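Example: TPP-dependent pyruvate/acetoin dehydrogenase alpha subunit.
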Amino acid sequence: MRYRLMFGVGLAIGYILGSRAGRERYEEIKRMAQRVSDNPTIQETAGLVGAKVSRATGVARAKVSDVAKNRLSFMRSGDDWQTEKHDESGTGWPEGQKTTPAPY
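Written out as structure tokens, the predicted fold is:
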């Protein structure tokens, strides 16, 4: 609740200060942001960062896939993932690993 209250207070203060600055200040900030984004150095840096993020995402995806394959051995059939084989019983477990309920 405290965080919601602080967020609301910050939002109100931002609104008040923004409305006092008016349209002129908004247009000035907009022009400055446009100049910065049109700068070739900034565009080159953004492209490099985007490429690195894309590469890192690919590496992370591969690592997560490898860990999942190793940790979730019941999802594998030999070396292949069971992507198209589904258990019809609704339990989610492969046929060989189903357990019967213990008698009470």
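Residues 85 and 94 are 9 Å apart (CA to CA).
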